[in-house]
From TrEMBL:
Protein name: CxC3 like cysteine cluster domain-containing protein
InterPro entries, alphabetized: KDZ
Family annotation (PANTHER family): CXC3 LIKE CYSTEINE CLUSTER DOMAIN-CONTAINING PROTEIN, SI:DKEY-29D5.2
Organism: Daphnia magna
Length: 208
């Protein structure tokens, strides 16, 4: 079985941990560790979350989609989703799926060959593990977030706003370091759109 027991793999309709309000976050990241989207999870991690991220990546003209169990997800997207919803066919036909270079080691030999980032044209030396840096940073916030109210009491930000600001702060730091290093690899729309959208939303809370 791909993914093994070492890595927690999502399933199509995972429904664990029912006793919690929110069970976690699904976070996507580009190879520069800028976070375009995060989803609040109310059940277990599922491929529908992944599909949302995949679709957004497609819309921003991404060519590669990296996921821990991409071998199974790709098959689901191609045979189950795209068959019934042809508008999503381009997700698999125009993009290339890859396994993160370390996670691939938990897969069977055919997966290690077929979804290997090192053997994928156009990938360069990108290993597909970059998002782990984002995750390791965001895990730290769990200690404060779990004590915060879900809804705003108007005196303070609540959980979602705190997280949004934390992610925007992270994105800004990544963008600034790219500019300072003069690498200019980040597309400005990556974070500028995020900023406008989220700050507008947060302003609404401030006014009310
Ligand atoms: Zn596999
Ligand atoms: Zn990027």
């Amino acid at each position: 079985m791909c993914g093994g027991s070492a890595f927690k793999a999502a399933r199509e309709d995972s429904n664990e941990q029912k006793k919690y309000d929110e069970t976690g976050l699904v976070v996507s990241s580009c190879k520069h560790c800028v976070v375009p989207y995060a989803i609040n999870m109310f059940k277990g991690e599922s491929w529908t979350h992944t599909a949302f991220m995949h679709n957004e990546a497609m819309k921003s003209n991404a060519k590669f989609f990296c996921y821990d169990v991409v071998c199974q997800y790709w098959k689901w997207m191609k045979t189950k989703v795209a068959r019934h919803f042809p508008e999503y066919r381009n997700l698999t036909s125009e993009m290339t799926g890859i396994l993160p270079i370390m996670h691939k080691n938990a897969h069977q030999l055919p997966c290690k060959i077929l979804w290997n980032p090192r053997w994928t044209t156009g990938m360069g030396l990108t290993g597909g593990e970059e998002h782990e840096q984002v995750f390791s940073k965001l895990y730290l916030y769990a200690y404060v977030l779990k004590h915060m109210a879900k809804h705003s009491n108007r005196a303070s930000y609540y959980r979602n706003d705190f997280l949004t600001l934390a992610i925007l702060y992270w994105n800004w730091d990544k963008a600034v370091s790219e500019i300072l290093n003069d690498t200019h690899t980040i597309k400005t729309e990556h974070f500028l759109e995020n900023y406008e959208r989220e700050y507008k939303r947060l302003d609404v809370y401030a006014v009310n």
